[in-house]
Design goal:
Blueprint: E1 5-11, E2 17-22, E3 26-29, E4 34-37, E5 48-53, E6 59-63, E7 66-70, E8 75-81, E9 84-88, E10 102-107, E11 113-117, E12 121-124, E13 129-131, E14 133-134, E15 137-138, E16 144-147, E17 153-157, E18 160-164, E19 169-173, E20 177-182, E21 188-193, E22 200-205, E23 217-223, E24 226-231, E25 237-241, E26 244-248, E27 253-256
Antiparallel strand pairs: 1-2, 2-3, 3-4, 5-6, 6-7, 7-8, 8-9, 10-11, 11-12, 12-13, 14-15, 16-17, 17-18, 18-19, 20-21, 21-22, 22-23, 24-25, 25-26, 26-27
């Protein structure tokens, strides 16, 4: 496909695969052939860090400088300009790297879209972008954002792990949080920096205790750095780090590392 680095992948509801690269745009695979989307086709920027499919089946791409929405025919682009984010209807694209890349995109139960960026975090109601704040202070450089089964919004970044239930904010840790997922049982899993910068830790927040002031937190694995986290169909947790991918089955961690001479 490409020698570029790939930071995101999505399987859409039709079984097609989307691969987001840093520098070569998006690759689409329908099971038979590949198609490459770049700024030449209308993508806002060729550095793609996140991919998301909304309820209508549109595919969203978080890129350097904003986001692109693909409806199967054309792109609609949304540009970050300092502290603001707005739709661009001029067809403008940015072949070169832009500031304020979009790290994560979700659509919540009410139909609002959330954009976690290296700058502000934005909420989009289909017409207007609003900066998401707490006590007048915007959430900046949020790396991961999810909505749990109860409709709570979770945000992770340099200000730690936060939960927002549409009226109340709760902070669970002030350590830098990189990735967040909710498993089938309602537990919250995170990757976060350890104290004194001693690497990263994969943590599990027990779902049954999340209503407590101090929920039960279990540290599962310590690594130099932890990238993505994913729950498999069998309930096992997979996570990536510098020397490969790992699986946690609830008891043990299995490493999957390449053998000598193999990729």
């Amino acid at each position: 496909m490409s020698s570029a680095r790939f930071f995101s992948v999505l399987e859409d509801r039709k079984g097609n695969l989307w691969f987001g690269s840093i520098g070569s745009g998006v690759y689409y695979f329908d099971g038979k052939s590949f198609q490459n989307f770049t700024t030449s086709e209308g993508l806002l920027n060729n550095e793609v860090g996140s991919i998301y499919e909304d309820k209508k089946g549109n595919i969203w791409f978080g890129v350097s400088g904003g986001a692109s929405c693909y409806d199967g025919k054309s792109f609609r682009n949304y540009i970050i300009d300092g502290n603001a984010m707005n739709e661009d209807r001029t067809g403008k694209t940015f072949p070169n790297r832009r500031p304020y890349e979009v790290n994560s995109i979700i659509e919540d139960k009410t139909g609002k879209f959330w954009f976690a960026t290296r700058g502000n975090t934005f909420v989009y109601d289909g017409k207007t972008f609003t900066v998401f704040t707490h006590d007048g202070k915007p959430f900046k450089n949020v790396r991961s954002i999810i909505e749990d089964k109860k409709g709570n919004i979770w945000l992770g970044g340099p200000d730690g792990l936060w939960r927002y239930n549409s009226s109340t904010f709760t902070n669970f840790t002030q350590r830098f949080v990189g990735y967040i997922i909710e498993d089938k049982k309602g537990n919250i899993w995170t990757s976060s920096e350890r104290d004194s910068n001693l690497g990263w830790v994969l943590s599990k927040y027990d779902g049954k205790s999340l209503s407590n002031i101090k929920p039960t937190v279990t540290e599962i694995a310590n690594k130099p750095i932890i990238f993505g986290i994913l729950e498999a169909f069998d309930g096992s947790i997979w996570f990536g780090e510098l020397d490969g991918v790992h699986r946690y089955d609830g008891k043990t961690i299995t490493d999957f590392k390449s053998k000598v001479g193999q990729n």
